[in-house]
Automatic annotation (TrEMBL):
Gene3D superfamilies: Transposase IS200-like. It holds the Pfam family Y1_Tnp. InterPro entries: Transposase_17, Transposase_17_sf. SUPFAM superfamilies: Transposase IS200-like (SSF143422). It comes from Haemophilus haemolyticus M19501. Residues 40-158 form the Transposase IS200-like domain. GO terms for biological process: DNA transposition. NCBIfam families: transpos_IS200. This is Transposase like protein. GO terms for molecular function: DNA binding; transposase activity.
Length: 179
């Protein structure tokens, strides 16, 4: 048996015959786990946040700039963007955040720094949103376990789903008694 193989852990058996017994740990070869020096982790979060007053302002050049800014800021903190999509009035992100960073601390950093960078590029937005306040307070966060693929598909297809819902809700109401 190869003792250097990480799939096996050797434990001392009962002291009766001082032999070792083998405990096999199943390790997936396609694991999404990441590691730090003494930590193995898989912390994925689905995060949604909105502009102040939920204004439909994220489109065109601003949308492209926000995407670039968010990628840059996530890179600074070693946060992996698995999937992200910017809607006109909110942003969905599926992030892999290291355990040394709290989710709320990271979101404060992401929203605060991105607002400053957005106002540097688009100075005219200061009149609409006030100085340094592009994003609304708060955010939605949900942990993602083994259903990563489902959340990725949801984020990727969110725009289509919203259009379908809008089309369903625009039908005129027909009074069943008048025809």
């Amino acid at each position: 048996m190869n003792r250097k193989n990480p799939r096996y852990i050797m434990n001392k058996a009962d002291n009766q015959n001082s032999t070792y017994r083998r405990i096999i740990i199943m390790v997936s070869k396609t694991s999404d786990d990441s590691s730090l020096s003494h930590t193995k982790w898989n912390g994925k979060y689905h995060i949604v946040f909105i502009p102040k007053y939920r204004r439909k302002a994220i489109y065109g050049k601003l949308r492209a700039d926000i995407g670039q800014i968010l990628r840059q800021l996530c890179g600074y903190k070693n946060v992996e963007i698995i999937e992200a999509h910017a809607m006109p009035d909110h942003i969905h992100m599926l992030l892999k955040i290291p355990p040394k960073i709290s989710v709320s601390g990271f979101m404060g950093y992401l929203k605060g720094k991105s607002a400053l960078m957005i106002f540097e590029i688009h100075a005219n937005l200061k009149y609409r949103y006030g100085n340094r306040h592009f994003w609304a307070k708060g955010f939605f966060v949900s942990t993602v376990g083994l259903n990563t693929k489902v959340v990725e598909d949801y984020i990727r297809n969110q725009e289509k789903e919203d259009m379908i819902q809008d089309n369903l809700s625009t039908k005129e109401h027909v009074d069943p008694f008048k025809g």
